[in-house]
Amino acid sequence: MRLLSLPTPLLAAISLPSLSDATHTSNWAVLVSTSRFWFNYRHMANTLSLYRTVKRLGVPDSQIILMLPDDMACNPRNTFSGSVFNDKSRELDLYDQKPDTPTQESAEGGDIATESETSETTPQIMPAGIEVDYRGNEVTVETFIRLLTDRWPASHPTSKRLLTNSQSNILIYMTGHGGDSFLKFQDAEEISSHDLADAFAQMHEKGRYNELLFMIDTCQANTMYESFYSPGVVGMGSSARDQSSYSHHADQDVGVAVIDRWTYYALEFLETRLNSTSADVRLGELFDFMTFDRVHSDAGIRADLLEGGEEAARNRRVLDFFGNVQGVDVEMGDGGRESLGDWRADLEALRRIGERTKREMGELNVTVGAGSKVSAREAGADRSVLPAMRVEGDVLDMAASTGGSGWLKKAIGGTSLLLLGAAWVAGSKMR
Amino acid sequence: MNALRQVFNDHPKAIVFAAGALLRLLTALLFPSLPDLLTLRPEISTPVNSFRRLKEGSFLYERGLDPYDGGIFHQAPLFLSLFSLMPDPSFWIGRLVSILLYTGLDVLSADCLYSIAESGAAHTTRSFQSPRKARTWKPLSVAAIYLFNPYTLLACLGRPTTVFATAFTLLSISHACQRQTVTAAFALAFAAYVSLHPLLLLPPVGLLCYDRLCMDMDGSHDSPPHDETSFAPTTNSTIAVDQRAFPKAIPFALRFAATFAIFLALLLGLSRLLLPSWKFIPSVYLTALTLPDLTPNPGLWWYFFIEMFDAFRSFFLGVFALHMLSYSVPFCLRFQKQPLTAVVLMMGIIAIFEPYANAGTAGAWLSALCLLSHLFELSSLHRYTFPAMATLLYSTFLGPAFHHLWIYAGSGNANFFYAITLVWSLALLIILTDTVYSALRDEWEAERPEGKGKDVGQI
Questions:
Q1: Which residue has the higher pLDDT, B256 or B230?
Q2: CATH 3.40.50.1460 is right for the domain spanning A24-329
């Protein structure tokens, strides 16, 4: 029973049979939306949906870089301010701060993002909150390329860096408006497929990834991965050259389209097939799920840069890129007993540290209450914060009335005026 | 209706003065927030005459502190003693009493204007009689213009202390017209004590006083207020005048200046007795010369000195002050035949070019200009009276609007307000120069009556 309450990824780690051939030790996700303005609501919803999925599958915020160029939740045109939805049923708020609670499985094709509960699995709790790393005007081509290649000044915070190494698998998801071999950033600039390919090449040279899954949902998306030349990169695009990618549906009350087709079906796949991580879902199934009937465009993949080509790519686990599954060696057997003994010794040491700390805390409380030295110090501190008025006697109390000296001043004033009047009269007598 | 007209005809002066006073009191009572609003307006309250700063200063004074220690209070010390006798202006009774006091000052000023107009000093002097004597307005009209001038009304409600300076300046001129040299000097000393610039009126007022003394000496009396005599210049008496009986000019000037200086010293000494130190002298008088406080006002100085580099500051301060100073004696020299014109024109120069100009002083000057009402025919025919009046109205309405846009709405900038102050000064200057033209032409036409109506051009 105790085992079942462990977090799901650990469950997955223990339950998956051939875990030892997972060659990566960390999972990172870079989720980029490149569009600004209210009518590009769906791109933000796409990205936030992927963010939610990736978090649900165990990747922590510290390993997710989320780039959102505009704020839909607090947009003045948002009727439902503070909320971003990816479905017209509005059952799931992507921008919600509350941790997820599992809800009932609803009709097929409806709420793709709600979690459905099956009898074998425990409810998955998604950690609450959205952590946006790059927002607004920070989402630029330069920032993106710097992020990938880690070329920052020393002052750049670590939370905004892609701190991957050669054992990291990276999922890069990009959505927005694109064209033949380019992707538009914020209506102001473009990144070309060659720039992206060169960035990936730099990453490979610096040993910044183990394997990279590049997903892109724009018009003519497949053209973006055609220029890649670094090994270990798998590309998935939503539409071929001269084809547009379409939005799935619009919400009449939000007023704009809320999700794109390709992302919608990707999410449907991930939510329905991957909610129980005992499922050994492969990338090939994801590829095959994106049919023309569903996506209304020719979704494509590029897998020739992976060792073993398309076959190896299709065989990769989805969780290799989407979840935070790590290769863990569990020591068993004789070594296990020793390790258990070590573990026990560690626990004992921790207990002793805890008791010592508690003792010290208790002493502190006692001394604060009683000791005269301490109280004198406290009283001195108290004295120093008293108003200066009570310490020095000669500071005037300005709020009070003038008192006796005021009458004197009035008398002096009146006398001086009378004196002037007398001088005036005297002067008028003279000629 | 007839009864009312009868009453008015019997006691015209009392009616007009009462109406003026009542107007101020009623406005203060009907719009209770208006006085405090006006004390905030930069057009009326400047750093050297603001009523709020006076309240601040008297607060500190009553508690035994030197109000001149901080850089806030730049007004004469006797105001502290005067206002300490009055109830606190924060309450309605104090506000009412202060407005009563200022209403009294306004009535006093109007009365002085009445007596100046009545004395005929504008058109009849020792050596000159204006051919347009018959066109002078009634003295009551001049007083009424002062009382019902919106600028002076707003100044009365806003209560800047320069109203004292204006009142005492007019008092000084009026006493000078009545040949009372000592009180004229005293009043001018008080005006200079309040605000530095009436010091520049010393030469013209001295000249006026001397002129009136001489007129008195030669046995002639004041000309009747509304003389129906012909246009031809006539001597006031047919008896030959013994000019040796005239007071000597230089000793008179020295006596006048000495009286002025003695009274000024008396005032300063009395102030020193009230205060713990002499610090009030740099605070009150050097402020106008060194301009430490550059709060925007309708004057021309603040904008310049905001953007002035420190190295040039003293030079330009000197230039500006010298400019204002440089009109005093030349006006006296040129207008020695009509000294009251010199006085009024110098008042205008001060109202336009003083560092902390305000609408109250300018309004008082415009009213005083009506003393030279016999010249209006000339300026309205030959000069730019209508454009000047229109510009004056324009800047009066746009000035507060642009100030509001600049400071409060944030949609304008300093240039808006400065432009309006330039326009305001331009309007006043046009009126001033037109008056200079009219006075000079009038003098010329007294000698050459055939030149009347002809255009004057440069050869």
A1: B256
A2: yes
